[in-house]
Write a structure and sequence with these properties.
single chain, 361 residues, alpha+beta, 3-stranded antiparallel beta sheet, 12 helices, elongated
Length: 361
C-alpha cells in the first residue's frame, strides 16, 4: 500500500490531518542549560527554532515532519551551515538511503546516509523515527502498521463505487414456463428495451411472467457496518479519538470535563511521540545544553470559570503576578501589577469571652 493510496482512505487521511492540526498549533519554546525559558525576542534565542526553513513557515515545516512520520515512519532534515546551522531542509525519505553496518564482533555499527546516490556525513543529517526496531535502519509508521486495514478500505471503496454501476440486476423476471436459451434471451432483451424507453410507466405482464424487484437497504448495499469496523481499526492504529472522527463506537456523549480528559489522553498517548521527535530534532542544531519544548497549553484550554479560579489561586499563592496573567491574555499592564501579592493572614475562628455558651445538661 503506497502512501498515495493510503491518503485516499478517509479515516487515515482525517487522522493525519487531526494530528497535523494539533502539532502545528503548538509553538516552540527554548530552555537554557539551567532550565529557564528564553525570551523569543532576546538575542540568545536561536532563530533556527522559530524559522527552521527559510523557504516555508513554521507550521508547514512541522506538518511535513508529521506527514513523513505517519506515511514513511521517519523524517530527514539536511543541515545547512557550518559550524552554526542556518537552515533545515526537509528531505523526502524516498530520496534517502540508510545502511546500518555490522562491526567485526557482530554488533551493529553506525548508520551511513546517502541522498540521491551521494553519501552525506552523519553530522549533516537529522533523522527521527516514528517506531524504531533493533537492527532496522529505517523507521516504520502507522501506514506500515495498517497495511491490511488500508487494503480492505480501498477494496470496499471500489466495491461501493461499482455496486450500482456494475450492472447489478434491479430485479428478476420469473415464469413457470420452460424457456430455451433463445427465448430467454429474447425476453430479456425486450424487457430491457421496454425499461429503457418507458421508464416510470406501468407495465402489463402476461404468459405467467412475474417481476420481483431486488430491494436492498442503503446500509446493506454499501456495507456500512464493514466500513465502520475498518475505520475503527484504522483510527486505533493511528491513535486518534474515534469520537473526533465521527467513527461509530466513539460517539458517546461528552461533557467539557471528559472532553478535556480525552484531549489530555490524546496528548500523552499519541501526540507525545510526534512532539518528542520534533523537539529532539530542533534541539540538535541549537547550542549544547539548550533544548526545545513545544508549548501544549493551547490544547488544554480551560473554560472561563475554571480559568478564573486557577488565576485567582495563582495570584493568592504568589506564584503569578496580575501583570503576568494580563500579558498572557494580551492585556496592558496595570500599575503595581508586577508586585507579588501579600498573602492574606489566616483567620482562625475564636470564641468571644462574653458570648453565651450552650452547656449540655
Amino acid at each position: 500500500m503506497s502512501w498515495r493510496e493510503a491518503l485516499k482512505v478517509s479515516a487515515f487521511a482525517r487522522s493525519m490531518d487531526e494530528i497535523n492540526t494539533m502539532m502545528s498549533s503548538m509553538r516552540p519554546t527554548v530552555r537554557d542549560n539551567v532550565g529557564a525559558l528564553l525570551d523569543p525576542t532576546s538575542r540568545q534565542y536561536p532563530s533556527i527554532v522559530s524559522r527552521p526553513n527559510l523557504d516555508m513557515d513554521y507550521e508547514e515545516f512541522v506538518q511535513l515532519a508529521v506527514n513523513d512520520l505517519m506515511l514513511h515512519g521517519e523524517f530527514f532534515w539536511l543541515r545547512v551551515g557550518d559550524p552554526q546551522t542556518v537552515n533545515l531542509i526537509p528531505t523526502s525519505p524516498e530520496e534517502m538511503t540508510v545502511v546500518r553496518m555490522r562491526k567485526p564482533d557482530g554488533t551493529w555499527g553506525p548508520l551511513i546516509y546517502g541522498h540521491m546516490g551521494k553519501e552525506v556525513p552523519r553530522s549533516r543529517i537529522i533523522h527521527r523515527k516514528h517506531t524504531a526496531i533493533t537492527g532496522e535502519a529505517r523507521g516504520i509508521g502507522p501506514r506500515h502498521l495498517a497495511q491490511a486495514e488500508l487494503r480492505a478500505a480501498i477494496t470496499l471503496r471500489d466495491f461501493q463505487a461499482d455496486w450500482f454501476d456494475a450492472g447489478v440486476p434491479s430485479g428478476t423476471l420469473n415464469t413457470e414456463t420452460h424457456l430455451n436459451e433463445s427465448q430467454a434471451q429474447e425476453l430479456q432483451t425486450r424487457w430491457n428495451n421496454f425499461l429503457a424507453s418507458n421508464r416510470g410507466r406501468s407495465v402489463i405482464l402476461s404468459s405467467g411472467l412475474t417481476y420481483n424487484a431486488l430491494h436492498l437497504k442503503p446500509a446493506e448495499a454499501q456495507m456500512l457496518e464493514v466500513q465502520d469496523s475498518i475505520d475503527r481499526r484504522i483510527v486505533r492504529i493511528c491513535g486518534t479519538p474515534a469520537f473526533d472522527l465521527l467513527v461509530p463506537g466513539g460517539t458517546e456523549s461528552r461533557t467539557y470535563q471528559n472532553l478535556e480528559q480525552s484531549t489530555l489522553q490524546f496528548l500523552t498517548t499519541t501526540l507525545a511521540k510526534y512532539m518528542n521527535s520534533v523537539e529532539s530534532g530542533l534541539s540538535q542544531p541549537i547550542p549544547s545544553g539548550h533544548r526545545v519544548e513545544l508549548d501544549e497549553s493551547g490544547l488544554l484550554r480551560m473554560d472561563s470559570k475554571t480559568k478564573a479560579e486557577v488565576d485567582t489561586a495563582n495570584v493568592n499563592n504568589r506564584t503569578r503576578t496580575p501583570n503576568e496573567l494580563r500579558a498572557r491574555d494580551g492585556l496592558a499592564k496595570l500599575p503595581g501589577g508586577d508586585e507579588i501579592q501579600k498573602a492574606e493572614p489566616t483567620k482562625i475562628p475564636s470564641e468571644r469571652v462574653d458570648q453565651p455558651k450552650e452547656i449540655d445538661a
